[in-house]
């Protein structure tokens, strides 16, 4: 125990600067040498007129990322006029403490005037970071193409996952990597089907949980609604599907049961990739949920990889975020990730990759005012609608 404590104390805890919003991070990084921020368009932006979609997304993991310090922040890309972002946004993704493994988490946020599409991916296996990035780059574009063509949410996502499978099979290198590596997938859309109604729609695979936090305007206790159910083999319907397909569910002491296929085991019962296990009951069929957001409440949405949820109860995470005002959404997720990292260090030598993404929407009268302010014509830039 003494040696473990010494190791914990000897590691460097993440030290953040003060960043109220993601725009502060981008502005600071652009002004510094060795910036972690790149100006690059997401493939999904090609589905709309240039300038109509704002994008923030994780940078592709490279071989050199194997050697960056533990707990380093993941570099990211952005494109668009982020100063005009109507909703508060915060995102942090940190490499854990797992020797010879890079950060395998991925994230993206795509903002249009009428909607926000965002997601978190948690890769696993030797090439999980490559599989997660492939999904993060390809899936959002397919979803937006179908939504723009008039498809509803669930058919659009199901079809997009099918296209993702096809695109992977046509990429020889990725098809090989996705045999024994995969990723969770939690994708969420915020949109407004009518002027008085905002809606959250989720699609997910695995255990990167999304929650909705809400409370009355003016204060009060935060209430938590879990938007995604964990896909593990201890769920009866998941276990039955696995057994019927010829797979096995094996229980390990002190851990959730796992799907076992040919002496190869997986902690989740649904994921994208892991094609070797599909014959043994692993599914890439997303589950869906929908929640309406009352405009008379204050609310935010939090998506995290299990690097947060394995060490922190949902209400505790929500209360930590909720101590900050909306205008400090980035500070809030930075604090959440630091707290989760410390919890891992207190438990032992292994620290999982940790990604947290919060969207704190501006609704009701506040949004109407924000729209009026940001839609005012500006010299040389009258059509930005992020």
UniProtKB/TrEMBL annotation:
Keywords, ordered alphabetically: Hydrolase, Metal-binding, Protein phosphatase
Organism expressing this protein natively: Effrenium voratum
InterPro entries attached to this UniProt entry: PP2C (IPR015655), PP2C_BS (IPR000222), PPM-type-like_dom_sf (IPR036457), PPM-type_phosphatase-like_dom (IPR001932)
SMART domains in the cross-refs: PP2Cc
Main location: membrane
GO CC annotations on file: membrane
PROSITE patterns hit by this protein: PPM_1, PPM_2
Organism placement in taxonomy: Eukaryota, Sar, Alveolata, Dinophyceae, Suessiales
Protein name: PPM-type phosphatase domain-containing protein
Family of this protein: Belongs to the PP2C family.
Bilayer disposition of the protein: Peripheral membrane protein
Any Pfam family matching the protein: PP2C
Subcellular location, record wording: Membrane
Signal peptide: none
Entry's Gene Ontology molecular function annotations: metal ion binding; protein serine/threonine phosphatase activity
């Amino acid at each position: 125990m003494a040696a473990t404590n010494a190791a914990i104390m000897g590691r460097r805890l993440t030290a953040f600067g003060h960043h109220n919003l993601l725009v502060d991070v981008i502005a600071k990084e652009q002004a510094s040498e060795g910036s972690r921020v790149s100006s690059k368009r997401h493939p999904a932006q090609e589905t709309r007129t240039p300038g109509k979609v704002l994008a923030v997304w994780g940078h592709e993991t490279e071989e050199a990322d194997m050697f960056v310090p533990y707990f380093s922040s993941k570099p990211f890309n952005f494109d668009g006029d982020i100063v005009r972002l109507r909703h508060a946004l915060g995102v942090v993704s940190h490499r854990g403490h797992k020797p010879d493994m890079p950060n395998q988490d991925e994230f993206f946020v795509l903002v249009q005037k009428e909607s926000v599409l965002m997601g978190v991916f948690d890769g696993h296996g030797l090439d999980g970071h490559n599989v997660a990035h492939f999904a993060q780059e390809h899936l959002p574009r397919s979803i937006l193409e179908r939504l723009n063509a008039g498809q509803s949410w669930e058919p659009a996502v199901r079809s997009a996952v099918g296209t993702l499978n096809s695109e992977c099979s046509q990429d020889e290198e990725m098809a090989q990597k996705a045999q024994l590596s995969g990723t969770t997938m939690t994708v969420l859309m915020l949109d407004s089907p009518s002027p008085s109604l905002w809606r959250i729609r989720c699609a997910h695979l695995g255990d990167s949980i999304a929650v909705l936090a809400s409370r009355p305007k003016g204060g009060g206790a935060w209430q938590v609604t879990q938007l995604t159910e964990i896909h593990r083999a201890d769920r009866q319907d998941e276990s039955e599907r696995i057994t019927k397909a010829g797979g096995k569910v094996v229980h390990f002491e002190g851990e959730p049961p796992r799907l076992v296929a040919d002496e190869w085991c997986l902690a989740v019962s649904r994921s994208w990739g892991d094609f070797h296990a599909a014959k043994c009951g692993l599914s890439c069929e997303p589950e869906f949920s929908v929640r309406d957001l009352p405009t008379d409440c204050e609310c935010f949405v939090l998506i995290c990889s299990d690097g947060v949820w394995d060490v922190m109860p949902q209400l505790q995470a929500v209360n930590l975020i909720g101590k900050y005002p909306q205008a400090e959404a980035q500070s809030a997720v930075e604090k959440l990730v630091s707290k989760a990292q410390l919890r891992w260090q207190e438990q032992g030598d292994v620290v999982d990759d940790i990604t947290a993404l919060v969207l704190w929407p501006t609704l009701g009268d506040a949004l109407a005012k924000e729209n009026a302010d940001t839609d005012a014509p500006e010299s040389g830039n009258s059509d930005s609608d992020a």
